[in-house]
């Protein structure tokens, strides 16, 4: 699927859902707040979220790290409209820059006027991105030498009942979401190319996973 096709698909899915997205997703997008707490952004640092959606995570992260600067990228114009509204309502527009783009192929300098970031995070987006492996590579490519990539997403539900796994997978498929069975391996391969460390954690009996690559 091309970037243009995926953009259109995401807009069609979220054109109406974006208005209730955060209310409904808070019950099953688990581990996001734990990831934000673990960003440990340095003073005056820069943070990029790939697949920023409604801006929910950026708003929370901006509260948590009040002297940091945030950048959000999303392929859906519909979601970015919601994000802009949320950020303006929070009064943090001066510290947040949003741009429309493909998380698997983007030019940070052209979009944001900045080439490297202290932190990059991806929250429940890799499971929706065609060619998600390219997103991992792109995220690591825009990190500063002492920077880190933080990921939270659906796991393989390996310690949950089979009926639950089947029900969840069927539900996620309706929204073109597919948990990435090779996520850990991909992170380790890409980290190895950069001599970086990987911390990988399974949450909630395999419902979700959280990973940190780098410092």
What's a quick, concise take on this entry?
The chain has about 220 residues and is of the alpha/beta class. It contains 9 helices and 7 strands, in the order H-H-H-E-H-E-H-E-H-E-H-E-H-H-E-E.
Largest sheet, spatial ordering of strands:
3-2-1-4-5-7-6
Order of helices and strands: HHHEHEHEHEHEHHEE
Uncertain stretches: 8-27
Overall pLDDT:
89
Number of strand segments:
7
Q: What is the level 1 CATH name?
A: Alpha Beta
Oligomerization state: single chain
CATH topology: Rossmann fold
Question: How many DSSP helices?
Answer: 9
DSSP strand content: 15-25%
CATH superfamily: Vaccinia Virus protein VP39
Looking at the overall shape, the CATH architecture is 3-Layer(aba) Sandwich
N→C terminal distance:
34 Å
> What's the alpha carbon Rg, rounded to whole Å?
16 Å
Global morphology? globular
**Overall SS class:** alpha/beta
Helix percentage = 40-55%
- What summary fits the major beta sheet? 7 strands, mixed
- Total tally of structural domains: 1
Structural account:
- With 215 residues, this protein is of the alpha/beta class.
- The protein has helices spanning 3-17, 21-25, 32-37, 56-64, 77-90, 108-112, 132-141, 162-173, 183-193; strands at 46-50, 69-74, 96-100, 117-123, 143-154, 198-203, 208-214.
- A seven-stranded mixed beta sheet has the order 3-2-1-4-5-7-6, sandwiched between helices.
- Strand 1 (46-50), helix 4 and strand 2 form a beta-alpha-beta unit.
- The longest helix has 15 residues, at 3-17.
- Residues 47-147 form the Methyltransferase domain.
- This is SAM-dependent methyltransferase.
- It comes from Pseudaminobacter soli (ex Li et al. 2025).
- Keywords: Methyltransferase, Transferase.
């Amino acid at each position: 699927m091309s970037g243009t096709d995926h953009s259109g698909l995401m807009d069609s899915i979220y054109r109406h859902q974006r208005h209730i997205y955060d209310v409904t997703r808070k019950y099953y997008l688990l581990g996001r707040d734990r990831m934000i707490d673990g960003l440990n952004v340095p003073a005056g640092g820069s943070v990029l979220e790939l697949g920023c959606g409604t801006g929910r995570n950026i708003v929370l992260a901006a509260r948590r790290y009040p002297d940091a600067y945030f950048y959000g990228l999303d392929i859906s114009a519909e979601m970015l409209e919601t994000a802009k509204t949320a950020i303006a309502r929070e009064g943090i527009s001066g510290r947040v820059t949003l741009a429309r783009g493909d998380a698997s192929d983007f030019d940070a300098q052209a979009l944001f006027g900045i080439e490297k970031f202290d932190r990059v995070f991806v929250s429940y987006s890799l499971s929706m991105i065609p060619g998600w492996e390219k997103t991992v590579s792109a995220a690591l490519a825009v990190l500063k030498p002492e920077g880190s990539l933080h990921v939270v997403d659906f796991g393989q539900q390996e310690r949950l009942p089979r009926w639950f796994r089947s029900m969840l997978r069927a539900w996620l498929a309706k929204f073109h979401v597919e948990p990435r069975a090779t996520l850990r391996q991909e992170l380790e391969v890409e980290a190895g190319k950069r001599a970086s460390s990987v911390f990988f954690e399974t949450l909630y009996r395999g419902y979700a996973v959280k990973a940190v690559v780098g410092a």
